[in-house]
Amino acid sequence: MPLVSMKSLLSQAEEGRYAIGAFNCNNMEIVQAIIAAATAENSPVIIQASQGAIKYAGIDYIVGLTRLAAELSPVPVALHLDHGTNFNQVMQCIGKGFTSVMIDGSKYSLEENIQVTNKVLDVAIPCGISVEAELGKITGTEDDVFVHEKESMYTDPKEALYFVEHTNVDALAIAIGTAHGQYKGEPKLDLDRLSEIDKLVEVPLVLHGSSGVPDDTITEAIKRGIRKVNIDTNIREAFMEAAKKVIMANPNEIDPRKMLGPAREAAIEIIRQKIRIFGSSGKA
Q1: Largest CA-CA distance found in the chain, in angstroms, rounded
Q2: pLDDT at 237
Q3: Residue 48 counted as domain residue
Q4: Predicted pLDDT at 178
Q5: 142, 49 Cβ separation under 8 angstroms
Q6: Rounded distance, CA 90 to CA 131, Å?
Q7: Considering 60, 82, 143, 215, which one is annotated as catalytic?
Q8: What is the pLDDT of residues 32-80, one digit of tens each?
């Protein structure tokens, strides 16, 4: 089916009290893995591309691969820009066919963040494009976005209410203790803060940096209002581990399909596991 808006998927997730998995892609095999996993689980899904992925694969390839995959799939698929920090690039993604974009103004002051978010909304809303914003700073590295641990900042519930009232975004990414990249230890999420934010704002909430967060914590976060869960690092780990096993077992192998095929299968399995944890299986 054609690509759908993220807003429609999150609205259904809000009604059903589950979350939609937003999985980052970097190449054809990962796009295929995301679609295969979502189809096997009969789950709606969000395929998202970071600024780094767009630089690597090219925006036309990202859009072309995802659009084709969605058209061949029986489940609803949204294409989302992850952590867009550049207004011009956000506009480019809208023009190229993304059905959802994230404008990450978390590095700005509250008022500046509102201003840059509304600038994107002014263009996106008439085009039917969903918009995600971020309030608070999530530590770690997400391709071109880096936040030092000392600069990380939890989302203030009252500021979240003020932000939503002055932007009317479709989804809000919040900082409650997760981090981008691999964790050095087990993350401790401020779930009470999440509950307080969820009571104050009516838009779907997004959890970034979810790879490495214990399954039971993710489940509890969903119960408390998270409707979109971002996963990238876990896919990379599974993909590369499978590829490394092939290379180690067959160091003279020259057929990339022999390496990328098993890597794709490993990615499918981890994505299926996540979809079941998020509660979206059977919700397509």
Answers
A1: 59
A2: 96
A3: yes
A4: 80
A5: no
A6: 10
A7: 82
A8: 999 999 999 999 999 999 999 999 999 999 999 999 999 999 999 999 9
Could you tell me if residue 283 is inside a domain?
Answer: no
Q: How many domains in the chain?
A: 1
Q: What's the token pair of residue 58?
A: 């090219």
What's the distance, Cα to Cα, between the start and end of the chain in Å?
12
Q: Which residue has the tokens 């918009």?
A: 131
Reply yes or no on whether 122 is catalytic. Answer: no
User: What CATH number is associated with residue 70?
Assistant: 3.20.20.70
173 within 8 A of 102, measured Cβ to Cβ = yes
Question: In the numeric block, which tokens belong to residue 40?
Answer: 């096997």
Complete edge-to-edge strand list for the sheet that includes strand 145-147: 145-147, 139-142, 179-180
Residue 132, in any domain of the structure: yes
pLDDT (0 to 100) of residue 8? 96
Residue 32 near residue 280, CB atoms below 8 Å: no
**With contact defined as beta carbons under 8 Å apart, do 22 and 81 qualify?**
no
pLDDT in tens, 273-283: 999 999 999 99
DSSP string, 112-154: HHHHHHHHHHHHHHHHT-EEEEEESB-EEEETTEEE-GGG-BP
Range of the domain at 146: 6-278
Contact (Cβ atoms closer than 8 angstroms) between residue 47 and residue 31: yes
Per-residue pLDDT at 185 exceeds 60: no
